[in-house]
Specification:
single chain, mainly alpha, 15 helices, 68% helix
């Protein structure tokens, strides 16, 4: 049973990049299937149930309870409860995936991550060059370059760990080629957020490499402060004319983002302690009013995880989010991985933080499912012993060994 479950997990990481390239919403059911495989693996392997990460489980459970309670004052209580139930499934899948990272063949899964990612890259480039020649097979929507943003973000998340794994095994040329091809893909595609996040991730990884314990602790503190002060800091950006003009000139949608943040800050100030209820962003009063022609004050969500947590769940929800993110950084400081790989994983966390701070809604199931599978892949690759040959790759001299 454990072997079959492990095969199912490999299948999921193999096809996820292609799914993100063409039917991103399909990442949600794929993550659900992966969660079932992970749960089966966890329950049928020795000591599997003891690997469940208790701290994040407690924080996510508290978030679910508070989300359910918020339905009492939510704009649409039934919508809040429905989302809370769906999030319970997604969170359970993510926790099971984290607990199932001790698979028997981590090197094989590492190869599947690489093959799947480059398959997704190839299909995305063909689609971009052919003006949607592939995506038209699965969608009737007109093709636009932002359609490939999801695959760009996946590539940005796994780039550094994938390259670091090969570099740590002495395969310098292979690592350089992988990093160059994946970085070129991110910068070729339209995803501005992925480009900015990856650009920030490289120096972040360098700092993590130089100060492997101090920098994660600093990042944990900064993340907590940034999330808890978001209703004050982010909405104020739109009040500076020169800054707003510069951002709007760089990209019009970025200027719209600042207007969204200002509006969200105003609504947060009205209900700072309890929020408006889980998933209430879609129905906040005044959100459907046009800030500029064709641009609403709040289209679906605030495009920032901190503001969305504050807006919907108030101070308790924001605090739980801050504690969860801070815990991830602190756990990174203690991870028993090779220094190079630990720094690369910190770069991935930087990418995720950057995208979540300016991109999709925090509760979107496909996005949470993608993050759960990315976490699983990064945890599994951390366990690759460089003495073991990764299938299909030439073996160079080993300069490190990983454990978990």
């Amino acid at each position: 049973m454990a072997a079959w479950c492990e095969a199912g997990l490999g299948f999921c990481v193999l096809i996820l990049p292609a799914v993100l390239a063409f039917v991103p919403r399909g990442a949600a059911p794929l993550a659900g299937f992966a969660g079932l495989c992970a749960a089966g693996h966890m329950l049928t392997t020795r000591g599997g149930r003891r690997r469940l990460p208790l701290v994040p489980a407690a924080l996510l459970a508290a978030l679910l309870v508070w989300g359910a309670v918020s339905a009492a004052w939510a704009i649409d209580p039934w919508r809040s409860l429905a989302l809370d139930l769906r999030l319970a499934g997604v969170f359970a899948a993510g926790l099971a995936l984290a607990a199932a990272a001790r698979i028997e063949a981590p090197a094989r899964l590492a190869l599947l991550v690489l093959v799947g990612t480059f398959a997704g890259i190839t299909l995305a480039i063909v689609d971009l060059a052919g003006d949607g020649v592939v995506s038209h097979l699965v969608s009737t929507r007109p093709f636009a370059a932002p359609r490939l943003n999801q695959i760009a973000v996946w590539v940005a998340i796994v780039l550094l760990p994938t390259a670091a794994l090969r570099l740590g095994g002495g395969r310098v040329v292979v690592a350089a080629l992988i990093a160059a091809a994946m970085a070129a893909t991110v910068y070729l595609l339209d995803a501005t957020g992925a480009k900015a996040a990856l650009t920030a991730a490289v120096p972040a990884a360098a700092l993590l490499y130089l100060w492997p314990r101090a920098v994660p602790r600093l990042m944990a503190a900064l993340s907590v402060v940034a999330i808890l002060t978001a209703p004050v800091t982010l909405p104020s950006l739109a009040q500076h004319p020169r800054l707003f003009a510069a951002v709007n000139t760089f990209k019009e949608s970025a200027g719209h983002r600042l207007l969204i943040w200002r509006f969200a800050g105003e609504r947060i100030a009205e209900r700072p302690w309890l929020g408006w209820g889980l998933d209430a962003s879609r129905a906040i009063p005044g959100g459907d009013v046009e800030a500029r022609p064709g641009e609403k004050f709040l289209p679906l969500h605030p495009h920032d995880w901190s503001l969305q947590a504050w807006l919907e769940l108030g101070a308790p929800g924001a605090l739980l989010l801050a504690l969860f993110v801070g815990w991830l950084w602190l756990r990174l400081a203690e991870a028993p991985w090779p220094l190079l790989y630990r720094a690369a994983a910190g770069g991935s966390l930087t990418v995720v933080s950057g995208i979540a701070g300016a991109g999709w809604g925090i509760w979107q199931e496909w996005w949470l499912g993608t993050l759960a599978l990315a976490l699983f892949a990064i945890l599994v690759m951390a366990r690759v012993d460089h003495k073991d040959r990764i299938p299909g790759e030439s073996q160079g001299p080993s300069i490190g060994r990983s454990s978990s």
